[in-house]
Write a structure and sequence with these properties.
By secondary structure, the chain is an alpha/beta fold. About 40% of the residues lie in helices and about 20% in strands. The chain contains twelve helices and 17 strands. A seven-stranded mixed beta sheet has the order 4-12-11-10-7-5-6, with helices on both faces. Strands 1-2-3-15 form a four-stranded mixed beta sheet. Strands 13-14-17-16 form a four-stranded antiparallel beta sheet, with helices on one face. Helix 3 packs parallel to helix 9. The radius of gyration is 21 Å and the shape is globular. The two termini are about 35 Å apart.
Length: about 400
């Protein structure tokens, strides 16, 4: 008999009932150190007092009205994002998947309004992940994502990351509208795109008119030590997808765009019942107040260096378990020499949460405000994990 909850998840045998900072408390009382943060979502940890206050204060005043009316909290958050980024305008969604859907629509509407509807194809890359909607799985293109869900949404071209000749040829095709890339591939195994590649892509977009679309759902909101990962390369996109960390655990996403890229999205071309509601945007504003601060981002970089140093030592000590460390900021991948789910399960036994990813990687995506003591404890528990696997 099918369970009441549709069985699309392979869940770990864990039930968490409370969270405190970087810690999760299981129903049986065990305390787990959470180095996954809800898959890069809880950027300020669990039950953060500032976010709790923002949410409860707003909840006691007004929950929801819909986008038929002005929403002051939404307008404030949009202004903050515009001030802090390349963008001129913001549309709020509830998730990264919804952000992907709008980004695809925005690119195609842009060219349609310019009288070139034949420019509808979007270049995407193998190893990418853009959510599980029709546009998201078509953009990723992998068999794992698409099998059984055909016919797929047409209009996507898939290239290998680093195949510069193929990219340049594809970008010059007369039917290409946009190019979609994660500055750091998350689900694909924590694979940073080199700064030179992002700069080259920006140059090609400027030359051809193709719109540059960046997916910063996982790598954005301070995760790499800048507010957004593309800032390290000194480039700006035309359109950017955001979610996960922007709500600190409350479902919230956004699409940021230049005025030019968004020019086709006029009244009635897109909408959302919940997107940007008072509750979500109250929390989003509280997140931005903290995460967009230069001093906070400097601490993210310091802590990332401290964690990375310990992980490099761990790899050197346990080469039969771990092969290498890669990533950016507090978006770190440990490439495993054993099956990555063996590492995940051994970490559970050590009361530690890490996240599996592509290319046989386990991901460390902790709260950005984790403490030095949390880092030390994480390294201790990863050492115990590796030791147990080595003995096995």
């Amino acid at each position: 008999m099918i369970p009441a909850v549709l069985p699309t998840y392979s869940r770990a045998p864990l039930t968490f009932v409370k969270g405190e900072g970087s810690w999760l408390i299981e129903a049986d009382g065990r305390r787990f150190l959470d180095m996954g943060a809800g898959i890069a979502v809880n950027v300020l940890g669990h039950a953060n007092p500032t976010l709790v206050t923002a949410l409860t204060d707003q909840a006691s005043a007004l929950w929801h009205t819909s986008n038929l009316y002005h929403i002051p909290q939404q307008e404030t958050l949009a202004e903050r994002l515009v001030e802090a980024t390349f963008a001129d305008t913001v549309f709020f969604t509830n998730s990264g998947t919804e952000s992907c859907e709008l980004a695809v629509k925005m690119v195609r509407k842009y060219w349609s309004d310019k009288g070139q509807p034949e420019r509808h194809k979007i270049i995407a890359f193998t190893g990418s992940f853009h959510g599980r909607s029709s546009a998201g799985i078509a953009a990723a293109g992998s068999e794992k994502m698409t099998a059984g869900f055909g016919p797929l949404l047409p209009g996507f071209i898939h290239l290998a990351v680093g195949d510069h000749d193929a990219l340049e040829a594809a970008m010059r095709a007369p039917d290409v509208a946009g190019v979609l890339m994660e500055p750091v591939q998350g689900e694909g195994g924590i694979i940073p795109i080199p700064d030179a590649c992002l700069k080259g892509l920006r140059d090609l977009c400027d030359e051809t008119g193709v719109l540059m679309m960046l997916d910063e759902v996982q790598c954005g909101m301070g995760r790499t030590g800048k507010l957004f990962a593309h800032e390290w390369a000194g480039v700006t996109p035309d359109i950017m997808m955001v979610a996960k960390g922007i709500g600190g655990g409350f479902p919230l996403g956004a699409v940021l765009a230049t005025e030019n890229a968004a020019s086709g999205m006029t009244a009635g071309t897109h909408g959302s019942t919940y997107g940007g509601n008072p509750l979500g945007c109250a929390v989003g504003n509280a997140v931005m107040e903290t995460v967009a601060d230069d001093a906070f981002l400097a601490e993210v970089n310091r802590k990332a260096a401290l964690l990375r140093q310990g992980l490099e030592a761990l790899v050197a000590t346990h080469p039969s378990v771990f092969e290498t460390v890669r990533g950016a900021g507090l978006m770190i991948g440990l490439k495993c020499a054993v099956p990555n789910m063996d590492v995940v399960n051994a970490a559970y036994a050590a009361e530690l949460i890490v996240i599996p990813g592509g290319d046989n990687v386990v991901r460390l995506l902790p709260a950005l405000n984790l403490t030095d003591a949390d880092i030390s404890e994480a390294l201790t528990r990863l050492e115990a994990t590796a030791t147990a696997l080595s003995a096995a």
